[in-house]
Design brief:
Helix content of chain A: 40-55%
Strand order of the largest sheet of chain A: 1-2
Oligomer: heterodimer
Protein name (chain A): Geranylgeranyl transferase type-2 subunit beta
Helix content of chain B: 55-70%
Radius of gyration of chain A: 18 Å
Strand content of chain A: under 5%
Largest interface: A-B, 41 and 50 residues
Number of strands of chain A: 2
Structural class of chain A: mainly alpha
Number of helices of chain A: 10
Radius of gyration of chain B: 29 Å
Subunit structure (chain A): Heterodimer of an alpha and a beta subunit.
Number of strands of chain B: 0
Shape of chain B: elongated
Distance between the termini of chain A: 27 Å
Largest sheet of chain B: none
Bound molecules: zinc ion
Pfam families (chain A): Prenyltrans (PF00432)
EC number (chain A): 2.5.1.60
GO molecular function, one term (chain A): metal ion binding
């Protein structure tokens, strides 16, 4: 989940330690483990998973301070907290980790502007904010967020061209339509931005001849920004799109299927 | 200038690899998304798979990982295996640091590379702190907002030390670009965490002056306005008592330009009990020429929100929300 880089996976590859790798023959990593679980949830095939094994793998990556490492090599980042908690939540296995400590670690990454960074003291960045707010949302801990302060920082991300950026003084980019909007929705402040200008910005990033959406107008389209553009439009209830859940990044009907029916 | 030595020799034609049988990638019989790899990449990965599966931890395996990395630095399994080999062959980690610095300079936004650097720095300990700080400085000379390099720098300071010149370095970066939010963030990191500075409270006065000066030179700059509030995080009573802070709001408001941030901060002060003098009231009144008459009897806080709704139209919903949620004492 690099913010402008591949987030999905090309192949699903399951290794014997219980996690998923980016492709066949690689070691498992939390990023790919979450992607694999999300894809199987989309396909309604969570039944193929050995949930016991995967949840043990994910839970084993929690550190003493509540943070999560991405894999056995120990890189720590609030992105991995999100991956772990989202994944365990989909699998109904949050009881396997210390949720209180996980939440406290996220809170230790909160900054003076109300946003969150990758590690304690790291600069606020819309992508990291999505991960932290998403983690807090899934664990029912949003009361720790200063909604008005964070909401203002997030709506300050809207540039005069209507698009959203990820940090002050950076250019707008379609992918932040997802990271910023989803965070605003989770803290119930999405009405603070100008939705029609943002919609217009995303539509301007379409390749009207060959399809697809790019990061900014007139750039080459790619599958990642196409996903984020469509997801952003869905969050703004653009006609004809299915609603998407801001915390799980899955269609709402899939999330409902996971939590309101037994699999 | 080209020489034959630079030409890539297939592993199958290298005598030192003749004993290894390459292992091709198994995409299954019907790959969903077949990927067309270049021949040299495919062959390198086939040999990598062979040594990875056999667990060979040797110098030639180390060289092989370097070749694989040069073709795809994002393959994290290759990096992991490289670390296993480095440990097994008891390699000189200073040489490895030189190597990784070279790779990192060319791929400064790659997670694996920075993680490898951290792994090395952790092993080499405090003696490399200065070198690591220097390295990130070189990255910032090209991209002063590189998130990976900032994470690394903060980790080095926390884990290995080297705080002595950090505040000066922030000042230097902000002299280059006063809008650099990463440098403002680092400044806050230093004044709140450096073991040499005595913490936020002892730095507050001088930092307020620094931020005020930055604001006066560029009032449209979001970062120092937020920094000012951050200096009084959790202490709103002290925030409203500092005349320098209310003063900078007034000073910028009187210019009638770039009034969004000073109005927003003044609103914050009012909400926390700041008692405005008539000077503040008339400075705000002077801004409401275009605001409908009907609001002429409203409170100062109310007027501020109305003005902001007009001068910051993209966020007009935010400001009208603020107006309808003002604390009762300022309504
Ligand atoms: Zn992007």
């Amino acid at each position: 989940m690099g913010y402008c880089k591949p987030y999905g996976i090309k192949f699903i590859s399951w290794t014997i330690v219980g996690g998923f790798a980016g492709t066949i023959g690689l070691d498992p990593h939390l990023l790919y483990t979450l992607s694999a679980v999300q894809i199987l949830a989309l396909l309604n095939r969570l039944d193929v998973l050995d949930i016991e094994m995967i949840s043990e793998y994910v839970a084993g990556l929690q550190n003493e301070d509540g943070s999560f490492s991405g894999d056995m090599w120990g890189e720590i980042d609030t992105r991995f907290s999100y991956c772990a908690i989202c994944c365990l939540s989909i699998l109904h296995c949050l009881d396997k980790i210390n949720v209180g400590k996980a939440v406290n670690y996220i809170l230790s990454c909160k900054n003076l502007d109300g946003g969150f960074g990758a590690t304690p003291g790291g600069e606020s960045h819309a992508g990291q904010i999505f991960c932290c707010v998403g983690t807090l949302s899934i664990t029912g801990s949003l009361h720790h967020v200063d909604r008005d302060l964070l909401g203002w920082w997030l709506c300050e991300r809207q540039c005069p061209d209507g698009g959203l950026n990820g940090r002050p003084e950076k250019l707008a980019d379609v992918c932040y339509s997802w990271w910023v909007l989803s965070s605003l929705i989770m803290i119930d402040r999405v009405h603070w931005i100008d939705k029609s200008k943002l919609t217009e910005y995303i539509l301007n990033c379409q390749d009207s001849e060959n399809g697809g959406i790019s990061d900014r107008p007139d750039n080459a389209v790619d599958v990642f920004h196409t996903y984020f553009g469509v997801a952003g439009l869905s969050l703004m209830e653009y006609p004809g799109l299915k609603p998407i859940d801001p915390a799980y990044a899955l269609p709402v009907d899939v999330v409902n299927r996971i939590f309101f029916s037994k699999f | 200038m080209s020489s034959d030595e630079d030409e890539w020799v297939p592993f199958s034609r290298r005598p030192e690899w003749s004993d290894v049988k390459p292992v091709p990638q198994d995409d299954g019989p019907h790959p969903v998304v077949p990927i067309a790899y270049r021949a040299d990449f495919r062959e390198t990965m086939d040999y990598f798979r062979a040594v990875y599966l056999s667990g060979e931890r040797s110098h030639r395996a180390l060289n092989l990982t370097a070749e694989a990395i040069s073709m795809n630095p994002g393959n994290y399994t290759v990096w992991y295996f490289r670390r296993l080999v480095l440990e097994a062959v008891d390699a000189d980690l200073n040489d490895e640091m030189e190597y990784i610095n070279c790779v990192a300079s060319k791929n400064s936004k790659n997670y694996q590379i920075w993680h490898h650097k951290r792994w090395l720095a952790e092993k080499l300990g405090p003696e490399v702190a200065q070198k690591e700080l220097e390295f990130t400085k070189r990255i910032f000379a090209i991209d002063a907002k590189n998130y990976h390099a900032w994470s690394h720098r903060q980790w080095v300071l926390d884990a290995l030390g080297g705080w002595q010149n950090e505040l000066d370095y922030c000042t230097e970066l902000l002299e280059d670009d006063i809008f650099n939010n990463s440098a403002w963030n680092q400044r806050y990191f230093v004044i709140t965490r450096s073991p040499l500075l005595g913490g936020l409270q002892s730095m507050r006065e001088s930092e307020v002056s620094y931020a005020v000066e930055a604001i006066l030179s560029n009032p449209e700059n979001e970062s120092p306005w937020r920094y000012l509030r951050g200096l009084y995080k959790g202490d709103p009573n002290l925030l409203i008592c500092n005349n320098q802070i209310s003063g900078v709001c007034l000073q910028v408001l009187k210019t009638k330009h770039n009034i969004i941030f000073p109005l927003s901060l003044l609103l914050e002060l009012l909400c926390h009990g700041f008692q405005p003098s008539t000077e503040f009231v008339s400075a705000v009144e002077a801004l409401r020429t275009s605001v409908p008459e009907s609001s002429s009897t409203s409170s100062l806080a109310n007027t501020i929100c109305s003005v902001l709704e007009i001068v910051d139209p993209i966020r007009s919903n935010y400001w009208s929300w603020r107006r309808s949620h003002l604390p009762s004492q300022v309504c």
